[in-house]
Amino acid sequence: MKLNKRFIILLGLMLIFSMALVACRGEEGTAPKDDTTGEAKEEAQGEAADEPQYGGDLIYGQIGNPQVLNPMYSQDAASGNIEDLIFAGLMRTNEELEMVPHLGEPVEVSEDGLEHVYRFYKGVKWHDGEEVTADDVVFTFSIPLHEDYDGPRKSYFENLESVEKIDDYTVKFILKRPDAAWPVNAGWPLLPEHILGDVSVAELGEHTFNRDPIGAGPFKFDEWVEGQYVRLVAHEDYFEGRPYLDSITVKITGDTNAQVLQLQTGDIDMGVFPSEEFATVETFDHVKISQVLRYAYNFFGFNFRNEFFQDHKVRQAFAYAIDRQAIIDVTLEGYGEVAHGPVSPLSWAWTDDLTVYEYDPGKAKTLLAEAGWEPGPDGILVKDGQKFEIEILYNEESNARRTTAVIIQDQLAEIGIKATPKSLEWGAFVDTINPPRHEFDTIILSWNLGTDPNPYHIFHSGQIDEGLNYGSYVNEELDQLMEAVNLEMDEAKRTEKLHEIFKILSEDLPYVFLNYPMENVAYPINLHGFIHHPSVPFYKADDWWLEQ
Amino acid sequence: MTSYILRRLVMTIPILIGISILSFAIMYLAPGDPASMLIDPNIKPEDLERMSERLGLNDPPHVQYMKWVGHILQGDLGTSFIQRRPVNDIIMERLPNTLVLMIASSLFAIVLAIPFGVLSATRQYSVLDYSVTTFSFIGVATPNFWLGLMLLMIFSVQLGWFPSGGIHTINVPFSIWDRIHHLILPMIVLGSYDMASLMRYTRSSMLDVIRQDYIRTARAKGFRERTVIYKHGLRNAMIPVITIFGLMLPTFIGGSVVVETLFSWPGIGQLFINSVVQRDYPVIMALTMFSAVLVVIGNLLADIFYAIVDPRIEY
């Protein structure tokens, strides 16, 4: 009798639990499908009959916690995104990822390319009502040139000799060497001289301004509650007109799961989510989804310190053996494009004149045989008594990279190579692949591309001992080309050189370039004017408006 | 009693020094440092070098440690490498959030655990006892993060009864009900394990006590059953339970790391995770020492309560 009772209670509890589980699962299958994938821009144009409306508050979910809101001292994307709303600079990127004038025009570049004169608009107001003048520009660009400056941006401006005020609305930058990529730096967000001018540069990094900033951007800083959110309100006097939204609150969600959950429950209105959650987010009927290629690529990199990989045929065999489409289908749910070189299709420097290695394990085997690798008794290739056994290193925080490593492991096994995936925590991972250690056979990693398409920092032999050339790749012809590109001021010749560089890299394979991933943004169905920019989350947020 | 407490406090000093040396050493030996966490082609090795210099990372470890001790003796926990402002400020902004969560969870645990533990002991082998026992087994065996995800799925996503994260609704004026609304799910998740185990301790301790001779004596004197159980029984049964509870205090910190991440709760658990990922040494050290102090206080409080509840104990 006693036993019976206990059994019944247990059974009851189990039932309750399993019912809860069923309930969770039911929803996913039955929820209506909502076909809203596509360009957000078209959407806004399609409903152009509706006049933009003022008002409304938007809550944007972000995983990272911002560090400091001062572009001279922050170094994380979480801070950078918010800074884009608060601050404005002379230049900014457009949808084609070109630098275009924002607050002012580059009116004159001298013959030798060393002097750049910028004129900017009158009547641009800081959030406190003061006018933006040449003094602010001179002040901002003098900070990284100052010997007491201790932020992370000094090298960005190492090519800047000085900056001079010509009149209240005109400044002149004097460079040390011609630099075709200068407009990128000229667009650096401006800081207010009338507030920070008296602060010594040594104290700037720890100044309270960095948590209570004043800029000239479309949104004004309102409140920062540590670990919770940063709230920004419309800047009434923004020089391009008051933003439509009353406020944007950037809420810190902490991790992907929380981000997607809060999107589902409406605790956040908008946010980026990973492709593996696409099927889930698609079922939410209060948001639309926008997808664009991210300005980035994923790659599988070789370490040339391992002599196996010094043989071009071996690297080619890897490129033939790895089914890149399969990796996209599994890790990105199909939302990505196969990559063949270190340039993004989004870039103005894009070319399709790249060497393409299609998936072909047969060819891979032939190439390995030509390179002298013979199958051993256990099926693993052997050359000079050495087995072809390697490690694939990745950082453990990334699910996508873990899956990629396992797929590559399988595909390499088919051609007789034994690959073992190995993961490290990010800090340890960086420490292991960085100089002076370079301790890996192969890595899986991604590069976010900069506005300047020259891959100098990644593949130049000068970047091995202290730089990002982790695989110690050396190619003298390429070195010279990459050095020449940024000295070349002629746009057409520069593009030609860049194309040559990309072609060589796609042929020579210091990496097997894997894919260009898509970025997914969910945003409210009544949000208009949103343009999904591949690298600026709050692109032209002053034009966003909510249908009330 | 006072001298006992003083003695105990003095004894904690070498313990804390030991803990600080150990955590400092582990941190120093762990791969990666805040300067090298960035992979940015525009940030040159010279920049990283300058950063290391500014943060004092180029000093030998014993010098770094002594500097840290020097500051901490003056009540200065240092400056965060990442946020570039005093660690004291950062922790003080977040500590109240964690304390609210901890206090709510412990109240939740105690308020449910003790009455049900007692009831289940006094009605041993009843349906109630079996339910409580089964429930507490499940509670002890359920991992925090799983329970949290389940509650979120059911009560937040499916039923929409509770918000899925954060500490209050944004763009809405302060209201105490809103705060409580946000607190309930994380409180249950953080408190459930301790509630379940406290329930079991209360039950078994109570079972021990009610079989004692003095309970029979009390009954024989003709006291009402309620008086016997709650006045004579419970007080004695609570002695081991209090000890256990004191030892549980620090587990709230550990648990809060998981719960705060799950519920986007901006407390020190979330801060700890962020700081470890970013190798923000001053914050990591401050939080490690904070937990260590909490363990010591937890033990001390347990001992003091012990004496209050059990007059036989003398120090």
Automatic annotation (TrEMBL), chain A:
Q: Where is this region: Disordered?
A: 28-56
Q: What family, per the record?
A: Belongs to the bacterial solute-binding protein 5 family.
Q: Which InterPro entries match?
A: Peptide/Ni-bd, SBP_5, SBP_5_dom
Report if keyword Acetylation is assigned: no
State the organism of origin.
Caldalkalibacillus uzonensis
Q: Which UniProt keywords apply?
A: Signal, Transport
The Solute-binding protein family domain sits at: 98-455
Which residue windows does the record flag with biased composition (Basic and acidic residues)?
Answer: 28-44
* Name listed for the protein in its UniProt record: Peptide/nickel transport system substrate-binding protein
Q: Which CDD domains match?
A: PBP2_AppA_like
Tree of life domain: Bacteria
Where is the signal peptide, in residue numbers?
Answer: 1-22
Automatic annotation (TrEMBL), chain B:
Task: Tell me the keywords, alphabetical order.
Answer: Cell membrane, Membrane, Transmembrane, Transmembrane helix, Transport
Which residues does the UniProt record annotate as the domain ABC transmembrane type-1? 95-302
Residues spanning the membrane: 9-30, 99-122, 134-159, 179-196, 241-263, 283-309
Where is this gene product found?
Answer: Cell membrane
Species this protein is from: Caldalkalibacillus uzonensis
- Its recorded name reads Peptide/nickel transport system permease protein
Tell me which stretches of the chain form a coiled coil. none
Query: What is the protein's membrane topology class?
Result: Multi-pass membrane protein
Q: In which family does this protein belong, per the annotation?
A: Belongs to the binding-protein-dependent transport system permease family.
Main location as per UniProt: membrane
